[in-house]
Amino acid sequence: MRKFDEWFSHFRSSISDYAYYVDFEKVHRNVDEIKVELNILNALIGSKNIEADFDKILAKYPQVLKCIPLLLAVRAKEIYTIDSDGEYLFSFDKMNYTSNDYRMFMRKTGLFDLLENHIISSLVDYATGVETGLDSNGRKNRGGHLMENLVESHLTKGGFILNETYFKQITTKDIESKWNVDLSEITNNNKSTKRFDFVVKTKAKIYAIEANFYGSSGSKLNETARSYKNIALGSKNIKDFTFVWFTDGFGWVNARHNLEETFDVMEHIYSIHDMENGIMSRLFI
Fold first, then answer.
1. Among candidates 1, 12, 15, which has minimal Cα distance to 253?
2. Residues 74-107: pLDDT tens digits?
3. Distance between CA 97 and CA 74 in Å, rounded?
4. How many CB atoms lie within 10 A of CB 35?
C-alpha cells in the first residue's frame, strides 16, 4: 500500500532541459526572414535628418514596414494607437496611411530616438535580442511538453513502438472506433470528447495516459486533480480500460490536498521517480 507523503517526497523542482530556455533555431530563423529589411533600416542609425531619410527609404523600400513591429517586441501585422492626435490602426503588411503618419508612429513610439541617438549599432543584433526575449514566453509551452517527452522516452525504452503499441494525442472517439470500446462513462454519455497524451495498447488492455509537470502553483492544478479523479472513477466501470496519470513538480505543494484526494482513489497515478524505478514494465501488461 503506497503512502502519499512518501510518494510526494520524491517530486522534483524542475525537469528543464537545455532547449527549454531559448529556441535559438527559431530566433535566428525569424530574424533571417527580415534581415534584408533590417539592414536597410540600419541606414537610419545615427542619421542627422532621420525623418527625411525614413521617407526616402519608405518610398523606395516599403517592405521595410514588416520588420517594425518586432522592433517594439510585437508579433502582429497591425498596431493600434490612440492619443490626442487621433486613433490609428497601422498596418505593417501594406501601407494604409501616409508616410507622414508612419513617421509620426516612429517618433511617438521612440524608434527614431533609438536609431538617431546611436542607442543601438545594428538592427539585426537588436532584433535577435528582441526575438530571444519574446521566445522566453514560449517556455510555458515547451515546459508542457517536457513531461510528455519524458514519458515517451520511458515508453520507447520499454519496447513500445509509436503507432503500433503506443499512440500520441488520441481522442476518446478514436479509441472507441479503433478498439470497439464504450467510453461513455468518461465522456458524459458521448456529450464530450477527451484527448489523451498517450494510449498504450497491449493484448490485455487499453491504457489511456495523461502526463504533466507543474513547476509553479495555480488554480489549474486543483481542477486537473478533480478532473482526473473523475476520469479514474469512471474508468473503473470500463472493461479492459485503465486510466494512468504521470505527474510531478513542486507546483503541487500548494495543491497537495487535492492531489492527495485523487491519489487515494486512483490506483495508477505515478511520478518521475516511479518511472525511473521501472513502473512502465510492471504496469503495461
1. 12
2. 999 999 999 998 999 999 999 999 999 999 999 9
3. 19
4. 16
What confidence score (pLDDT) does residue 119 get? 87
Q: Which of 101-105, 190-194, 276-280 has the lowest mean pLDDT?
A: 190-194
**Residue 141's pLDDT band (cuts 50, 70, 90):** low
Identity of the amino acid at 210: E
On whether the CB atoms of residues 186 and 172 are closer than 8 A, the answer is: yes
Which pairing describes strands 206-213 and 241-248: parallel, antiparallel, or unpaired? Answer: parallel
**For residue 219, what pLDDT is reported?**
83
Count Cβ atoms below 10 Å from residue 211 Cβ, excluding itself: 23
For residue 6 the three cell numbers come to 512518501
Instruction: Give the SS3 label for residue 66.
Output: helix
Question: How open is the CA angle 272-278-282, to the nearest 5 degrees?
Answer: 120
The DSSP output letter for 251 is G
For residue 236, give the C-alpha cell: 473503473
Which of 276, 263, 211 lies closest to 5 in space, CA to CA?
263
Whole-angstrom Cα distance, residue 207 to residue 200?
A: 5
